[in-house]
What we know:
With 167 residues, the chain is mostly helical. It has one domain: Growth Hormone, Chain: A (Up-down Bundle), CATH 1.20.1250. The chain has helices at residues 4-32, 35-57, 66-82, 90-112, 118-137, 144-166. Helix 1 (4-32) runs antiparallel to helix 6. The two termini are 19 Å apart.
Amino acid sequence: MVNKSERYIPLIVTVGQVAVFPYYIIWLKEVSLTYTLFAWLFAVFSFAAAWGYCVFQSEKIRKPSIAFCYIAMGIVYLVVGNINISVDFLPYIAILLQVCLGFLQGYFRAWHIKQRAYRLHAVQHYLLVGLTMIVLSFIMIISPVVVILTFGVVLFVCGGSKLLHRG
């Protein structure tokens, strides 16, 4: 029998990542100012995600609890939502955040596919993302920062919950 945190928290994280990503892209486009820089920032994200995936797959490295991954992703989203830095430094901060977020998402993805409930999550994921995106399409007045901050808090709570259940 799978406990509820093993069953629902990874699903919340995957659906949330997909639902929040359009808002994160809006933020990233505002930060990057040019399409070229935007493309480079996404390339960095992709390379970092591949790195995170490989790190999890490595047999030599001791793997910390996935709760720390949730908490770290939450912190990244909270930093993004609370950032108030001049435009000159923002691209440098964004590249650092892209590396962190990419690595964590790659690590999470590698962990998630090894879970027993992954097949069930794959189907539920598509259904929940579809419903979430329809609901978000009707909400016109919420700023991307509010959505990003809210998801950061959700990730932080999921990580804390996972740590409490583990102990």
